[in-house]
Amino acid sequence: MGHEVVVELVRSGIVEGRHHGTVVATDAAGALDWAVGDPGAVLLPRSCNKPLQAVAMVRSGLDLPSHLLALAAASHSGEPFHVEGVREILASVGLREMALGNPADWPLDREAERELVRSGGVASKVHMNCSGKHAAMLATCVVNDWPLSGYLQPQHPLQRAIRDTFVELTGRPVGHDAVDGCGAPLLGTSALGLARAFRALAVSDALTPEGRVAAAIRQFPEYVSGSRRDELAFLAALPGAIGKFGAEACHVLALADGRAFVVKIEDGGDRARPVALAAALARSGVLEDPGVDSAALQALARVDLLGGQHVVGEVRATSAVTG
Question: From the DSSP assignment, how many helices (H) and strands (E) are in the chain?
């Protein structure tokens, strides 16, 4: 896939480990600005696709309040307000949790998981991080009188609508068909295609489906991830930005002016993902933009390595990324 070394671990003056990956930055018009690795190689964006899927659902008639639309685009942490929101989406179309096609799981948030265990709860479909998307998919089917059974099959009207929207927004044919961890179809594209798709959302008029999804992410970023996630930290530091994390260390972020950034870490090493993304923002001069919390982004760009109670090294972006 043309990955290069983008993050390294330096302990006591020696490079102890390396993460290969791809980093892509586009300008406000959607043209490639710079890249490390191959910007045209096909990757699986995983949950980075969820805002694009949400656009397709809004185009198909899904009408949710903004906080629930953000949840439709989420890999949520399973905190109580996430779970309540999923149940609210289902109840709005007369469905219950058993209708969800995603597997059961524990909350991603450690504190939410501990609280669920303390209360005698068990892993469930509604706590699984993709349940907001699945609830919205079911609601879209109800609105259109599409069958609920088989809603995850590629030939279902819902998935055909999502595919058409995905191709339009990325500006290229689907690069690979796969199945995501939640059981939904997973559409592959390039890092450049993913960046351009998020740019389209970020600069769209607020009344369009793209603009509505972008506005929901901006207004309720904690619903898209959780209250203790680095995804939220990025959006809090970048006024007007939208973004989404995906499994196997994929992350896409688009600024209000249309500049966009994609990071994919080859080995799925999630410790490297925020480091590479923050470094990419710095290279493109984003830390000097008005209103940006540069200190927060600088903190995301470095992870200290400890020897006992002392800092003896760091996880840092390589010069290939920092420029």
Answer: 13, 11
Burial of 279 (0-12, 13-18, 19+ CB in 10 A): buried
DSSP for 220-250, please give it. Answer: -HHHHS-TT-HHHHHHHHSTT-EEEEETTTE
Specify whether the CB–CB gap between 190 and 172 falls below 8 A.
Answer: yes
DSSP string, 15-43: EEEEEEEEEEEE-TTS-EEEEES-TTSEE
Measured CA to CA, the distance from residue 169 to residue 188 in angstroms comes to: 13
Q: Quick one: 35 exposed, middle or buried, by C-beta within 10 A (0-12, 13-18, 19+)?
A: buried
Judge contact between 91 and 121, C-beta under 8 A: no
Question: Phi/psi zone of residue 249: left (φ > 0), alpha (ψ -120 to 50 degrees), beta?
Answer: left
Joined together, the tokens standing for residue 224 give 């898209």
List of domains in the chain:
4-322 (3.40.710)
Tokens of 73: 């685009």
Integer Cα distance of 109 and 58 in angstroms? 28
Q: Are 21 and 276 in contact (CB under 8 A)?
A: yes
pLDDT in tens, 230-259: 999 999 999 999 999 999 999 999 999 999
The tens digit of pLDDT for each residue in 254-299 reads: 999 999 999 999 999 999 999 999 999 999 999 999 999 999 999 9
Encoding tokens for residue 171?
């500006």
